Amino acid sequence: MARFEPSPDCRPAVVTGASSGIGQATAQALAALGHPVVLGARRVSICEDTAKAIRDEGGDAFAVHLDLADSDSVERFAEAAAETLGTVEILVSNAAQNMAGSVLGTGTDALEGVLDVNIIGTHRLVRALAPSMIDRRRGDVVFVTSDVAERPRPTMAAYVTSKWGLEGYVRSLQMELEGTGVRATIVRPGPTLTGMGMDWDPDVTAEVIEQWASWGFARHSNFMRPAGVAQAIVAVVSLPRGTHATVIELQPEAPIQPRSENEERI
């Protein structure tokens, strides 16, 4: 893979979970602003399609296979990103695994699998890419979590546990990075239309949503679009030096209510 030579105004970026949803939209949004991007995911062929589309539009994008559950894969990915981009200044840690299941209905192996990707895999990635940012005294690491970390939901035991733990991890990291020039940010989306959970059994999905509604977690039917979340991530990394967004939560806007006949038009 040829090494990319960025202009001084470009900030080379790495986006994980970039084969769909928030990760894909974030890679596209960063590239549209001129940032060279490495897209990482297990479905690398889809990432390559996205990277090609970005290149066709005049951007710079490269696809590299990444499996956060495999230490060797993470090391190879980090090496390829550094070899291609040179100095990685932006890391968007978005890849995650989700599964439906109650606390008592989730097996130990299944729980460990989700934690291995969502927490340990993230740690592997941070250890591989953050030290060079600290050495340069400049960088942004954005962690895409979930509002389940703030408001846990039933029948998602493994995912809730992983996102809750990930936010604790990031909060510790934020303190440790203070004064290094590297900013760590939590972007916490609410319900978003992504591919995550789309492979669940429809009956399971219906049960999960019913449980959410019974606990007041489904006030309306709107979901955010990935592009909207991506714009928030871009805004975070575009903040000028001296400003650090620590936590940003995003929620879908409720449907606009129809006017009543007696409502005064303003």
Provide a compact summary of the structure.
The chain is α/β, with parallel strands linked by helices. The protein has helices spanning 21-32, 44-56, 71-85, 108-136, 157-177, 202-214, 226-238, and strands at residues 13-16, 37-41, 61-65, 90-93, 139-144, 182-189, 247-250.
Biggest sheet: strands side by side, in what order? 3-2-1-4-5-6-7
Query: What's the architecture in CATH terms?
Result: 3-Layer(aba) Sandwich
Query: Can you count the beta strands?
Result: 7
- Radius of gyration, in angstroms, nearest whole number: 19 Å
What is the number of helices? 7
Give helix % range. 40-55%
Uncertain runs with pLDDT below 50, 5 residues or more?
none
Work out the oligomeric state of the chains in this entry: single chain
Portion of residues in beta strands equals: 5-15%
CATH superfamily membership: NAD(P)-binding Rossmann-like Domain
